[in-house]
Design goal:
The protein is α/β, with parallel strands linked by helices. It is 14% helix and 26% strand. The chain is built from four helices and 13 strands.
């Protein structure tokens, strides 16, 4: 599996056959609401040439479901995408194009093209916010993208014991875990490795602040094989 961090909480999974994109933020729309949140990461326009097989939005905040970004993907019609999103996003996203829009709330599962997607609990200011388990049924790997969330023991009951890689926020603002709690969370879920993210877009923080020895560092827009 090749994984690309596309800034903030955006991710692209690509196994050579199926492309899965999560929470792309490829505009500067947040700055229009709050000028202090001007993006610090240049936009890679080449990403818009990709038409994912599966698009996932974890919640309805501009740096996760960004209408300016989402419309550029969803209004493509060369193939039908599966779009998984909780109710707060689903109501908006399905206005674009004729894709397969799946209302993807906690405990919902969706199996397609050798992957099983499961929506799990997240504790965030959007009450519909979810985390996502991505299970590669061919390779037997489990990837867990927490989405935006605080540390909560209530999340653990939704999670399997065999997580290979967890992606988790470490910025500590906007109802997200800080680095200290992210390390605790990583150890509590028992994942083999952790990818710190959700930093560097609006702040000067680096994922380096996540100091656990089992971390996997991703560079923005660089493909990493895992």
């Amino acid at each position: 599996m090749k994984i690309t961090w596309i800034g903030q909480a955006g991710l692209l999974f690509d196994n050579g056959k199926v492309k899965i994109m999560l929470d792309p933020y490829l505009s500067n729309s947040v700055a229009k609401v709050n000028p202090l949140n001007d993006r610090r990461v240049p936009i890679d326009e080449s990403l818009f040439e990709i038409t994912p097989d599966v698009m996932i939005f974890t919640h309805d905040h501009l740096d996760h479901y960004d209408p300016e970004t989402a419309s550029r993907f969803l209004e493509k019609q060369e193939k039908t995408m599966t779009v998984l999103s909780p109710t707060s996003v689903w109501q908006k996203a399905r206005q674009h194009g004729t894709h397969n829009y799946v209302e993807f709330n906690r405990h919902t599962e969706w199996t397609e093209q050798g992957f099983r997607f499961s929506a799990v609990k997240a504790v965030h200011s959007d009450p519909y916010a979810i985390g996502v388990l991505i299970e590669d049924l061919e390779e037997g790997k489990v990837y867990y993208v927490t989405g935006d969330t605080l540390y909560s023991k209530d999340i653990f009951e939704d999670l399997p014991k065999n997580i290979d890689l967890v992606f988790l926020p470490v910025n500590g603002v906007g109802n997200n875990m800080n680095a200290t709690d992210a390390v605790r969370f990583f150890r509590a879920v028992g994942a083999k490795r952790a990818v710190p993210y959700h930093v560097g877009m609006f702040d000067k923080l680096s994922p380096e602040i996540f100091g656990d020895e089992h971390r996997l560092m991703l560079n923005v827009y660089e493909e990493t094989e895992v």
